[in-house]
């Protein structure tokens, strides 16, 4: 198995990141030092994945504290980073944590360190749910480059593979930006895990005919009732999994749970430019002037989620009780440091 790529790295005078838009064809390392560069990296998905944008945003704000001396200008810059994408709550959570700290860089480093140990715990809990020779379907990308740690849903699968369980993964390509085809397949291959790429529209027939044992996905925001925002297409996979009696798991750290909202109806859904739909890989496929609707996420009702895999273990229904309970647990990752 290859070593995981470093998604994000603190350099002292800049935040280094791997440009995820160029993978798998090129390992392009870039630096962000200004608020424009930090915000653009997040908005363009050069840095993406809910926990990863949290870690990157945390370092970004710590960096801006040292370069933007005027307090009002600094707060405005921090706000731009915080609001660069609206759905993944990890970004707001991480920026708020850094802003509340005395030593902002130390706090950003702590968030990054914690993410690594949280991911290890999620992977260990999730690997227990994966049996020998399991056939698994996943959507979008939830590996090391999506978290700046070991990954969430993909981390569980990679841990099962390391334990010798030989999982096989059906990877949804994840239109429109192809995080599955470009990133998940690549990360599984690097980790030595067997994978088969499918178009998103094939997920239902794969669940119907290919003896899939379980689905595991990540999340961008989870409400108190278990409603889960994740990459658009996840909801359809959850419906098909429920129809075929296949367990549907969501792997996510506590920082992805938004304890301030009761249900998924309160989750803001990012809408992205139409040209991501009318084009594919930079080539226009729809006719000139074609209209498109491009929600980046959808919300899977909590009742379709078999369980959440978290750093506190497996969280099962009724979510109205088990999810809010997570808010009161001690910070395991900080205790492990
Ligand atoms: O738009 P993206 O690529 O940032 O969307 C990412 C996802 O939807 C992931 O599934 C989610 O952030 C979990 S990452 C561990």
List the SSEs and their pairings.
Elements: E1 8-10, E2 15-18, E3 29-32, H1 35-43, H2 50-67, H3 71-82, H4 89-99, H5 104-127, E4 135-138, H6 144-147, H7 153-162, E5 168-172, H8 179-190, E6 194-198, H9 203-209, E7 214-217, E8 221-222, E9 228-231, H10 234-243, E10 248-251, H11 275-278, E11 279-280, E12 283-284, E13 297-300, E14 307-310, E15 313-315, H12 319-326, H13 332-336
Parallel strand pairs: 4-5, 4-7, 5-6, 7-10, 10-14
Antiparallel strand pairs: 1-2, 2-3, 8-9, 9-13, 11-12, 14-15
The structure holds 5-S-methyl-1-O-phosphono-5-thio-D-ribulose.
5-S-methyl-1-O-phosphono-5-thio-D-ribulose is lined by residues 45, 48-51, 88, 140, 142, 146-147, 152, 179, 218-220, 230-231, 296.
Structure description:
The chain has 337 residues and is α/β, with parallel strands linked by helices. The chain folds into two domains: 3-116, Four Helix Bundle (Hemerythrin (Met), subunit A), CATH 1.20.120; 119-336, Rossmann fold. 40% of the residues lie in helices and 16% in strands. The chain has helices at 35-43, 50-67, 71-82, 89-99, 104-127, 144-147, 153-162, 179-190, 203-209, 234-243, 275-278, 319-326, 332-336, and strands spanning 8-10, 15-18, 29-32, 135-138, 168-172, 194-198, 214-217, 221-222, 228-231, 248-251, 279-280, 283-284, 297-300, 307-310, 313-315. Helix 2 (50-67) runs antiparallel to helix 3 and helix 2 (50-67) packs parallel to helix 4. The longest helix is centred in the middle third of the chain and has 24 residues, at 104-127. The structure holds 5-S-methyl-1-O-phosphono-5-thio-D-ribulose.
């Amino acid at each position: 198995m290859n070593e995981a790529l470093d998604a994000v790295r603190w350099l002292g005078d800049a935040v280094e990141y791997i440009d995820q838009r160029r993978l798998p064809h090129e390992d392009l390392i870039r630096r962000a030092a200004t608020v424009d560069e930090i915000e653009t990296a997040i908005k363009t998905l050069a840095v993406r994945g809910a926990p990863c944008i949290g870690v990157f945003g945390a370092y970004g704000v710590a960096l801006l504290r040292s370069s933007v001396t005027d307090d009002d200008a600094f707060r405005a810059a921090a706000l731009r980073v915080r609001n660069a994408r609206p759905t993944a709550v990890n970004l707001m959570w991480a920026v708020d944590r850094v802003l509340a700290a005395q030593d902002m860089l130390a706090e950003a480093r702590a968030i990054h360190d914690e993410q690594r140990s949280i991911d290890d715990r999620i992977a260990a809990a999730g690997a227990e749910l994966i049996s020998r020779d399991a056939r698994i379907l996943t959507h979008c990308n939830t590996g090391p480059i999506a978290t700046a740690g070991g990954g969430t849903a993909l981390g569980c699968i990679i841990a099962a593979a390391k334990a010798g369980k030989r999982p096989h993964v059906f990877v949804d390509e994840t239109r429109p930006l192809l995080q599955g085809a470009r990133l998940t397949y690549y990360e599984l291959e690097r980790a030595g895990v067997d994978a088969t790429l499918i178009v998103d529209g094939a997920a239902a027939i794969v669940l119907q005919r290919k003896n899939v044992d379980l689905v595991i996905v990540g999340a961008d925001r989870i409400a108190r009732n278990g409603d889960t925002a994740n990459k658009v297409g996840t909801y359809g996979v959850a419906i098909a999994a429920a129809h075929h009696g296949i367990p549907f798991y969501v792997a996510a750290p506590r920082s992805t749970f938004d304890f301030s909202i009761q249900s998924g109806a309160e989750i803001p859904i990012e809408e992205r430019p139409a040209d991501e739909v009318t084009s594919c890989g930079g080539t226009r496929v729809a006719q000139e002037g074609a209209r498109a609707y491009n929600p980046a996420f959808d919300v899977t009702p909590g009742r379709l989620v078999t369980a959440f895999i978290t750093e506190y273990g497996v969280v099962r229904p009724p979510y109205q009780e088990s999810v809010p309970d997570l808010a009161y647990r001690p910070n395991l990752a900080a205790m492990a440091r």
